[in-house]
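Appendix B. Extra example for self-study. Work through it before the problem class; the solution is given directly after the inputs so you can check yourself.
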Amino acid sequence: MSTAIEQLAPEQTISTSRPAAVIERSSLWQQSIKKLRRNRTAMLGFIFIIVMFAACFIAPLFSPYASGKVNLAVMNQAPSAAHWLGTDHLGRDVLTRLLQAGRISLTVGLVSMILSVVIGTVLGAIASYYRGIVDQIIMRIADLLMTIPNLPLLFIIGAILSEWKVPTEYRLYIVMLMLSVVGWPGLARLVRGELLSLRERDFMQAAEALGLNDRRKLFTHLLPNIFPLLIVVATLSIGGAIISESTLSYFGLGVMPPTPTWGNMIDAANTLIDFEKRPWLWIPPGLAIFATVIAINLFGDGLRDALDPKQERR
Amino acid sequence: MTPSTQQQLIIVDRLKKYFPVKTGLLQRTSGHVKAVDDVSLVINRGDTFGLVGESGSGKSTLGRTLLRLNDKTDGTVQYQGQDLHDLSKSEMRKLRPKLQFIFQDPYSSLNPRIRIGDAIGEALIQHGLCSQEEVDERVAEVLALCGMSSYHMDRYPHEFSGGQRQRIGIARAIILNPDFVVADEPLSALDVSIQAQIINLFRKLQEQRSLTYLFISHDLSVVQHLCNRIGVMYLGSLVELGPRDECFSKPLHPYTQALLSAVPIPNPRVKRERIVLHGDPPSPVNPPTGCKFHTRCPLAQSKCREETPLLRHHGSGHYAACHLI
Ligand SMILES: Nc1ncnc2c1ncn2[C@@H]1O[C@H](COP(=O)(O)OP(=O)(O)OP(=O)(O)O)[C@@H](O)[C@H]1O
Ligand code: SF4
Ligand SMILES: [Mg+2]
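Solution. Structure tokens for the complete assembly:
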């Protein structure tokens, strides 16, 4: 009986020297990054996002018009060498304002995404861990928020805030909060569902059978398995937040002038004369939103492909 | 050895595991899958207890509930006199290395994001059975024992075949030096030569470390080869239980007889009547009344529909649940 094992031994003795190709084995994360780097469209999106961020956060520092001073002498000018994208009705440089607006819009997108992800993950994790009544309460609130379509909900909150005459400086922060209020339920539901299904997977039963403690189960088995999904969803939700903010601001319910955002810049298209005669006022912010959201989505899709461990066999 | 001198390692008493069946919009519980329904058995130290039965008869559920990977619905499971389902969470956790489980599905039982070296070694470190420096060596040892190589340690599960994964699952269980192992069809994804290798490994471990197995399998010839005691399950209940030779040479229960008649006999001169069972096993949600087997039993009588036969002793440790014996 035992001879069969011994016969195996010479072939399978413990080799201390590993094959050369094996020494350089990379982790799953490194493999994913490599895969992502090979994805052209995703990288294009990524580069665009980086350039956009750099332009919005750095370029205005070097603009001669950064102060945004009103200069009625040069109001409503078409693009020229001095003002590449023309000027608005107060004589401010549109390009500078566009970049400053981008700073706000991108920040709103990023911060509200982070808030939604943190709230959604924590609540989703709590719901899936405790189940029962806690789960019921959290998920019913989430369902309630999700049954109302986002935009009407945001409009209602925005309108109430306008009634309350919240000072314009604070509106920025309030918009971020509003966006995370509509953003977290979807994430909480996703995280909860994912954690519940992971818990039923045999490898979590195996973790139980091995007697691993809760900390190890959570940090080495559960979280690493929802992280890829979370990263993808978070990335994609930045785009959604930017669009929602722009929509709100466009309707005058979001961030108010003089704080510029892409949304309230497009507001110019609301007046017929600006719409017809001064396209430099509203086309650039429109394009900026469009291109940024597309870039984020391309990058997010690339992430999704790169992070799926099941596809890494090939 | 007589039964009384053997040490009873695992005592299962009237164990039940029901899964609620939820239906409709409100997910109301409309019934229960009686996956394990009133099972009692004893596994002695050093036994290789073979559990056989059709797909869906509750073998895996019995194995899992036995090791408290599921909650039980009713009954008790004792390991060396301790009721496993009564222990606190942390007491149970400390006991885990002694009680291991080899999972049926080699794909879902390995975490896709953990290298297999870590997967095999993590419990050793967690239970303080080995230092961080030694762990690679121990993992390499056990991998070699299971017919794999040490450089496999750095790989992720998706880089392995089903058979290799199954051996990783075996390595992960035996590295803890357990007392009792539930092996849920551990050979199903392996080809024949590796099956033989793993069977030998199981035997060798048993001799060296006086391991005890609950070996779940579809394959009666493997069970006959490896196990010394056998239990036959039908729709969540044990219908026959006894020493291997007894069960194989004179099966008592009609269901066991039918199962065995389907196994090819090495000796062509011995003719065995093939008993063909008609129909599918009934749903475990609404099992037949009386003897659960009566819908398919060739010998069924009116009494079988009304009275549930008890698992009775028929001499030399051989039990069966049938009115006709
Ligand atoms: N988690 C679960 N929830 C609900 N029902 C379950 C669950 N696990 C098992 N069952 C049901 O319990 C019954 C027994 O399943 P089990 O997996 O124990 O059978 P098995 O004998 O191991 O079958 P196989 O040979 O196919 O592995 C089946 O009817 C199955 O559908
Ligand atoms: S009790 Fe009746 S139905 Fe059940 S196995 Fe025996 S003869 Fe068949
Ligand atoms: Mg099974």
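Self-check: The pocket of iron/sulfur cluster (ligand 2) is lined by residues B 253-254, 291, 293-294, 297, 299-300, 304, 309, 322-324 (CB under 6 Å). If your reasoning did not lead you there, revisit section 3.
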